[in-house]
Target: Methyltransferase domain-containing protein
Amino acid sequence: MDQSTGMDYDPATYWTTSAKNFRSSARLHLQHFLCQRTFGYLLESHVQDFVSHSQDERSGPLRVADLGCGNGAWLCDLHDELAKSGITAQLDGYDVNAASFPAPAFLPPSIRLKELDILKPLPEDLVGVFDIVHIRAFASLLVDTGVAPLLPFIHAMLRPGGYVQWEEIRGDKFIVEASGDTPGVACNTISQILQAGGKARGSDFTFIDQLDQGIKSHGGFDDVQKRVFEKRRQDYKAWTEDILMVWGEIAVHFPLKADASSAKITKESFLDLYRRAVEETEQGVAVHQGVIVTAVGRKAA
Model:
């Protein structure tokens, strides 16, 4: 437990909790929609060129893995885009928690979603078979280590010449933009609470700012490129709603007042603060995280 806030929250176990439900999945759909509006693509230009130029050389379908796939939204959109281009693909999604997986009957035959802890030894059938490995919003699992623990798995999954495409948002950064006469006091307070809790745990998201350098440091990737996308102002309201859903889920990690009367922040006090933050956003206050950092790299042949 973080003594400065009273919050009992471990980013490494957050995604495995049985409390993941339709609200969590709806938030992931919103996040995917917003990322696509921000990027304007599903496959970064270097990756798209690789797919197009290698089409005649492939003896089988394009193989794509999505790590931390959530509800498979990115894979579903990618299926549609590849189908329009006449590209045959096998799209495999992996997540430590299958709670958000759609029923297989509702997915295209080319999409398979499987439960897998990617930070444990890889099954042999996943080694050296993928043309593309996609990762998004994995940072909360890497705040103690940076990208180093995940890169060997990504590298092992890729075929020689295959690409990693990685997209991250600073989970420790909240920009509160006031509107009119509403200053956003409650939103700023929650931001400060979460930042203080992260610092107390030693969480470090700064590796995201050098995501390309982290990939380069592995030594097995060439042509590593980084791009930074500013979030569009017209999307601030939707990003605010995405963040509010995260904040609402975090409330359960604070102790009840009856169980910890001396805690600086209890579940009851946080929920009251959260209620006031929602009211501020309804009056025009926006909360966002500024930019999305993306990096791509090609496995050395």
In short: The first strand starts at residue 62 and ends at 67. The radius of gyration is 20 Å. The CA atoms of residues 12 and 59 lie 39 Å apart.
